[in-house]
# Entry
Amino acid sequence: MTVLLIAEINGTRLEADATAKALAAAARLGAVDILVAGEGVSTAANEAAGLAGVARVLVADHAVLGRQLAEPMAELIAGLAGRYTHVIGPATAGLKNILPRVAGRLDVMILSDVIGILDAETFERPIYAGNAIQTVRSADPIKVATIRTAAFAPAPRGGSAPIEAIEVAPAASAASHWVEDRLSVADRPELSSAGVVVSGGRGVGSKENFALIEQLADKLGAAVGASRAAVDAGYAPNDRQVGQTGKVVAPALYVAVGISGAIQHLAGMKDSKLIVAINKDEDAPIFAVADYGLVGDLFQAVPELVERL
Amino acid sequence: MKILVPVKRVVDYNVKIRVRPDGSGVELANVKMSMNPFDEIALEEAIRLKEKGAASEVIALSIGAAASQETLRTALAMGADRAILIETAPGADIEPLAVAKLIAAVAREEEAGLVLCGKQAIDNDMNATGQMLAAILDWPQATFASEIRLEGGAAQVTREVDGGLQVIGVALPAVISVDLRLNEPRYASLPNIMKAKKKPLAIRPAGEFGLDIAPRLTVVTTVEPPARKGGVKVGSVAELVAKLKDEAGVL
Ligand SMILES: Cc1cc2nc3c(=O)[nH]c(=O)nc-3n(C[C@H](O)[C@H](O)[C@H](O)COP(=O)(O)OP(=O)(O)OC[C@H]3O[C@@H](n4cnc5c(N)ncnc54)[C@H](O)[C@@H]3O)c2cc1C
Ligand SMILES: Nc1ncnc2c1ncn2[C@@H]1O[C@H](COP(=O)(O)O)[C@@H](O)[C@H]1O
# Structure
């Protein structure tokens, strides 16, 4: 079994946490080559080579790959796929965009959001917002899968894999081009990898009030998350959404403030180790998954909590 | 330009599904079904583009059992001009790869200029069909769209990505998959529901396309996730802090 793991690259940086978690999953299947594709990614390649358990790092450094657009990335990966039994990546927005396209090109199915690997062809994945877990066996010659990072502990550092540059036929297509990034300023831990997450919902009431959530997050050294309702209402940016169709997190501590606990939200956080909920409605469904529930007004409880921490 | 909108009939998002105790799947008998919420958003966008004069016709397409006609009637009532059902055997599992092949066949036949699909079907949570379709057609793709602007044979699309937003341009024809914040879908009015009954809905057996749509994945078993055990209610913030410190040891 040989696995091609696609590193998650953000600009020129390696998303080390997501990549290391997918590596931990990939390593269960066989020898792993990591593909680092982008423009100006030599530092990222070095970092990938430092992850333990990597056979080789393949570097595709080319301007057409600079923004990791789906068309040239899928072209590149599909071209390499024939040498591997598995093509795998973390289930980031970036690779959820690319890997199904690779599978389509190879005429194989995609295994999305894998949370368990039973053997080389048998995988577990959540369906219906995580309310059911399906075990599926793939009959395809090449298995293409995205890995839900919250389900795997990261592979450690301490490796020194050889790095090989690979040729990229620059099929610079006119079909798609990058225009701009409008990224949120990241001044606190990243949501998907944070050990503590504080999330606010519609109950927070306004963008201004969301400062309360951030104060609590600052006290706890936490990342900030949000429900869909809070994002839709403009209280928080889109990349903070936790849930079935947002980010899936499993921190040591998740604090849900003014969030009712719809199944779509629970899908993104119910595997957290410890859940705290603050909600003024004692019947809110969030309390059914909370280890510690505080029934009360968040506008009193959160400032008091900030003070006592 | 014709816009093709694939719509899937799924268990309504408000339903708490039940897993059959024998591991054979999710109970679908007597469960409320609806159009996949992302597909409503895709359809709404297509209708708005037509209303703005950017499209000539909106075609709704579903792949599924006969009951999917109901979903297509909803699409027609919202404002699609006509509908196509590619009918499959009841209970057959049509995977995204097969769905993408069938959509591709219709997109070619119709010479569609744009396929607007949902980013994810909320039953299987695959998030794959649009990307696979783009690969099969060899068209560019713009997934997870929160804003779409058509101009001069191209689309400028704002995408929801992990770090925020990304704007890309794609030449048409293209596949665009839509995210939650693109628009708020309209409700079908009663007169439009009546009118929809007269709009054309073609039914074509899947076999007619001569494509390999056999499943590649065998479902071995479907189980419920381990249940989280309920916790306790605390009486005050002070008690919460004490529990976090002493009992859970997370502070
Ligand atoms: C296709 C689809 C995908 C979706 N994907 C997601 C997703 O990924 N993530 C997600 O989160 N949702 C998602 N949703 C939405 C989901 O169904 C819920 O609508 C949403 O999670 C509700 O957000 P909320 O809990 O913040 O708001 P509400 O349900 O309105 O809850 C607000 C809560 O705040 C409490 N509250 C109000 N004021 C106070 C106060 N002063 N003090 C304390 N408590 C207070 C209320 O008691 C209430 O429980 C999706 C929905 C669909 C249809
Ligand atoms: N059986 C189907 N019929 C019509 N459209 C579908 C079907 N399955 C998936 N789609 C489309 O593909 C999108 C993504 O679905 P999926 O890849 O299954 O998560 C959906 O939002 C629909 O637009």
User: Anything to note?
Assistant: Residues A 201-203, 227-230, 241-246, 258-260, 262, 264-265, 268, 279-281, 284, 297-299; B 13, 37, 122 surround flavin-adenine dinucleotide (ligand 1) (CB under 6 Å).
